[in-house]
Amino acid sequence: MKHSLLAIVFLSTATLTSCGRSGFSGSSAKPAEIPNAPSTTHNKPGGAPGGVLPESKNDADGNPADDGKTGSGPTVPPPLPGTSKGGTTDPSKTPAKTDPATTGTAAPTGPAGPAAPTLPVTTLPGPVPVKVQVCSDFITVSGQANPWLAHAHDGAKLVYSNGVSDTAPQQAPIPHASVCVAKGKHLVFETNSDTNHVGKPVTHKGEGLETTVGFDLGAFRGFSNIVAPLDSLVAVFIPANHDVSGASPATLHFDSVAARNFTELQPRLGQIFFIGDGRTFDGAIQRFVVPEGAVKIVFGNMDGFQWSNNTGSHKVRVNEVLP
After folding, report:
1. Cβ atoms < 10 Å from Cβ of 239
2. How confident is the model over 52-69, as a mean pLDDT?
3. Residues whose CB is less than 8 angstroms from the CB of residue 292 and which lie 6 or more positions away in sequence, other chains included
4. 110-136 burial, b for 16+ CB within 10 Å, e for fewer?
5. Domain segments of the chain: what residues?
6. Spatial CA neighbour of 253 closest among 265, 269, 245, 243
7. Which range has the worst mean pLDDT, 24-38, 137-151, 194-208?
8. What is the mean pLDDT of residues 250-275?
9. How far is 32 from 266, CA to CA, in rounded Å?
10. CA-CA distance, 138 to 273, in Å (whole number)?
């Protein structure tokens, strides 16, 4: 009888030990770059090389803790709920099972949130009319909006080779977020420009003056350089966190009629590109493909240095091309 009792106790211990806990664990083509054109000149005075003032930039495991006890035998865990010390089930202590599909009260769903606004749809006229979804109101872009000051902290200053400068936020452009700024989407822009370059009215509106320039400081703050007409409308796509210390994309050249007469452009992140009036010379609507990683677009006015003495503005509306 003694031997039988010992066997039962040993069997119960082994059964309980086998009930330990288990753990669970649950992970289009690049923009064509036009070969460098002959260097262009700016109609503002030059000087010795300049620079820029510094800019601030932006265990627990799931097992029970050791109780400090030592011994040569196996540790016996406490009885499971609904069992006796011998390991047999005690029906009076076993909780009744319930069917969640037929018992309890359903959680309140609450009032429905506001529906997402429906963006208007229209058709832009042209040699080939384009059906678009309107993604923004008309955005005012100051003639002093310097794209190389995008995301600059207040007080940041760009000092040019002739000693003059531009400062944030006065000459900093405003980034614009839109549901239409997403990888692979084709955007088109409606524009209305009236800028004035150092007292000289711009007769070509968004297309700018005949004179083309590059940025005095070149590729800078993670943005590319660009060669484009003075006071023309330009833009750049940026990610959620633009790296001002990162490598800059290649320079795009728009210093010829042919270079500005494209039908589609695929700029990279941080690569400043020309919009002008958003149309080819025969009135066809130009398309711009959003690069991967872009969440915002920054519009600016083209100049070589000292945006602070420009006047006037561009107005631009963002549209997404629909099938």
Report:
1. 14
2. 43
3. 183, 184, 269
4. eeeeeeeeeeeeeebeeeeebebbbbb
5. 138-321
6. 265
7. 24-38
8. 97
9. 8
10. 19
Reduced to 3 states (helix: H, G, I; strand: E, B; else coil), residue 242 is coil
pLDDT given at position 102? 41
Scan for tokens 């980034």, then name that residue: 175
pLDDT higher than threshold 90 for residue 305: yes
For residue 321, is pLDDT > 70? Answer: yes
3 state DSSP class of 77:
coil
Q: Indicate whether this model's pTM tops 0.70.
A: no
For the segment(s) 138-321, the CATH number from 3.40.50.150, 1.20.1630.10, 2.60.120.430, 2.60.40.1120 is: 2.60.120.430
Q: Concatenate the DSSP letters of all residues of 269-317 into one string.
A: TT--EE-TTSB-TTSPBPEEEPPTT--EEEEEE--SS-GGGEEEEEEEE
Q: Which segments of 247-306 does DSSP mark as H helices, in order?
A: 257-260
- Tell me the HSE value of 196 on the side-chain side, using a 13 A CA sphere: 7
Contacts of 235 (CB under 8 A, 6+ apart): 147, 272, 273, 275, 288, 297, 298, 299, 300
CA distance 275 to 113: 38
Q: Which residues have CB under 8 Å from 54's CB, separation 6+?
A: none
Taking alpha carbons only, the member of 216, 132, 224 closest to residue 180 is 132
Tokens of 159: 């000092």
Question: Of 143, 140, 165, nearest to 152 (Cα)?
Answer: 165
pLDDT tens-digit readout, 31-58: 444 444 434 444 454 443 444 444 444 4
| 261: confidence class by pLDDT, cuts 50, 70, 90 | very high
Buried b (16+ CB within 10 A) or exposed e, 82-100: ebeeebeeeeeeeeeeeee
Q: CA nearest 168: which of 53, 75, 20?
A: 53
